[in-house]
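During the no-cost extension, the postdoctoral fellow (Dr. R.K.) reprocessed legacy sequence entries with the updated structure-token encoder. One reprocessed record is reproduced below for audit purposes.
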Amino acid sequence: MSAPAGEPAPGPMVMIVEDDAAIAAGLALNLKLQGYRYEVAADGETAHERITATAPALVLLDISLPKQSGLWVLERLREAGDHVPVIVLSARQDEFDKVAALKLGADDYVTKPFALAELLARVAAVLRRARQVAMRADSLPAGESTATAAPGGKTTAFGEVVIDLDARSVTRRGAPVRLTHLEFQLLTFFCRSRDKVFSREELLRAVWGMQNGCTLRTVDNFVGQLRAKLEADPDRPRFFVTVRGSGYKFTAPERAD
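Re-encoded structure tokens follow.
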């Protein structure tokens, strides 16, 4: 069951998905004091329905919920191509849950009990990063990509891969390729900076924002996932290239569609 939306305010709308009424009320009060609008959903099924219906700017998502779990909600959103920023909240400290949430496309992961000031700072940081990514995608210089005009909007292409930046969708050989939110963010970051070498630290700052729980190994894992999904031979990558001792670079010949 969902609670009524908070009073109208100029700030972004945050969906609070939390079945503990006291925690939800505390989050709602403090978000309101920071100028955010909010709505509360107390179970997984309602959360999925309300997120889809209201398109919030950000979701605070508990994992342990009645009816369906937070991970179920997150997976349904990403399967549907909904890339709303999500911060997962959980009392669990199991590494499996954290890895599963990040692989499904969570933007951050906070373990309960959390410091309220830190959580609010993470909310602001994730929203700021989402705005920056949207602005960069809108201003993608043609000279730094193979951006081409297409009926569905702005696209960029390399090899057998076509990326629709507006629809945030990817195809390879014409077939849809399912990417998580952060895989797509990393892919578009690479495409904007062709042939430039980035260290793992630089990639972590640019794409993940040094969020809690991420390490340099996180970058290696995500580059591996892009190779597996987009390279013809992931063991001998053509586009996502390791630069020994330095990091990674994206290299691809110009392709005009």
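The two ends are 49 Å apart (CA to CA). Residues 19 and 42 are 4 Å apart (CA to CA). The remaining legacy entries will be reprocessed before the final report is submitted.
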